[in-house]
Design a protein that fits this description.
Blueprint: E1 9-13, H1 18-29, E2 33-37, E3 53-55, H2 62-68, E4 74-77, H3 84-89, H4 91-112, E5 116-122, H5 145-164, E6 167-173, E7 175-177, E8 180-182, E9 185-187, H6 197-202, E10 210-213, E11 225-226, E12 228-230, H7 231-242, E13 249-255, E14 261-262, H8 263-274, E15 280-283, H9 298-303, H10 312-322
Parallel strand pairs: 1-2, 1-4, 2-3, 4-5, 5-6, 6-13, 7-12, 10-15
Antiparallel strand pairs: 8-9, 11-14
Helix pairs in contact: 1-7, 4-5, 8-10
Bound molecules: uridine-5'-diphosphate-4-deoxy-4-fluoro-alpha-D-galactose.
Length: 326
């Protein structure tokens, strides 16, 4: 539920990607007008709702951003590269896409007189935490270039707030899973290649077993721990955030469930949901992975009046349905 009616047109950057397209569908299903800009380098044009105005272009293209911003009153900025391992092998791609793309967007927003922004940031801004759960005031020491680029964009947004009055909220996502049911199907995760744990676990087979990246981490069962949040709950937080934007203010909120699950616990829950064993092999660690990421979500609860409502089983079921496996 929104705390205030949204009589506006929202630009969704990255609206053909996983989280952006779910947001686009949820907003249009509530009668909110949207424009989507996405270069479809990882997104899919058919994931964009037909009610959206759709511009297929990258954030390198300032003229396309200018066109996309016409009639918009706010921006939800999802567009960007978001794979930890890829960022380690291709840091320049991440700097160009995430940092320079965002710089172009912020500049064009300023020129268009649009000052309201909700930004998709990431738990990877924290790096290896000193304390758990991680609160927004924890030190930010990213363990990979992906997290560095998200932190750099947050810094640029803070500057926009201080110097040009921007009203912004950055949402630091922990691990997102699940899907959104639409008429005739599901809007969910469709990456190629897929690197995320839950889809890899769900499509694991004897011929192609899911790899467990490291079994000697300093955790109770030796595998990494992450905090999973359902994509629909996540999108609800963006809608609440839009209603809480304040001029010259950049606020930061963690979005997770506040509970951590190890890689082995994910396999176990997926096995229960699917009613079968999940074939897996032990593999080496993946570069750039922190051992444990679990969110303190008390700030989002109190200030956004947000709370996740869908548990891990629900996320895995919806992911499996979207993949045609349930
Ligand atoms: N993992 C495996 N096998 C796989 C895939 C993943 O063991 O086939 C492990 C990873 O090592 C990690 C965990 O499962 O410990 C989760 O990995 P994901 O690739 O699903 O997600 P990440 O934690 O690497 O990253 C995700 C998003 C980032 C975001 C981060 C925040 O991709 O954008 O969550 O927690 F920043």
């Amino acid at each position: 539920m929104t705390s205030k009616p949204l009589d506006e047109r929202i630009l969704i950057t990255g609206g053909a990607g996983y989280i952006g397209s779910v947001a686009a569908h949820i907003l249009t299903s509530r009668g909110i007008e949207i424009t989507v800009i996405d270069d479809c380098s990882t997104g899919h044009p058919d994931a964009v709702p037909s009610a959206a105005r759709f511009i297929q272009a990258s954030l390198d293209d300032r003229e396309a951003i200018r066109t996309a911003l016409i009639d918009c009153t706010a921006v939800i900025h999802f567009a960007g590269k978001s794979l930890v391992a890829e960022s380690v092998t291709h840091p320049d791609l991440y700097r160009q896409s995430n940092v320079e793309g965002s710089r172009n967007l912020l500049e064009e927003m300023y020129l268009a007189g649009i000052s309201r922004l909700v930004f998709s940031s990431s738990a990877s801004t924290y790096g290896e935490p000193e304390m758990l759960p991680i609160s927004e005031s924890a030190p930010t020491r990213p363990a990979n270039p992906y997290g560095e680029t998200k932190l750099a964009v947050e810094g640029m947004i803070t500057h926009e707030g201080n110097s040009r009055g921007m009203a912004a909220i950055s949402l630091r996502y922990f691990n997102v899973a699940g899907a959104f049911a639409v008429v005739g199907g599901w809007i969910g995760e469709r990456h190629n290649p897929e690197t995320h744990l839950i889809p890899n676990v769900l499509q694991s087979s004897t011929e192609n077993p899911v790899e467990i990246f490291g079994n000697d981490w300093p955790t109770p069962d030796g595998t990494c721990i992450r905090d999973y949040v359902h994509v629909v709950d996540l999108v609800e937080a963006h809608i609440l955030a839009l209603a809480k934007l304040m001029p010259s203010t950049h606020k930061i909120f963690n979005l997770g469930s506040g509970r951590g699950y190890s890689v082995r616990e994910i396999l176990q829950t997926a096995s229960e949901v699917m009613g079968r064993e999940i074939p897996h092999v032990e593999a080496g660690v993946r570069q750039g992975d922190p051992a444990v990421l679990v969110a303190d979500i008390s700030r989002a609860k109190s200030e956004l009046t947000w709370a996740p409502t869908r548990n891990l089983k629900h996320m895995i079921e919806d992911s499996a349905r979207a993949m045609g496996l349930l």
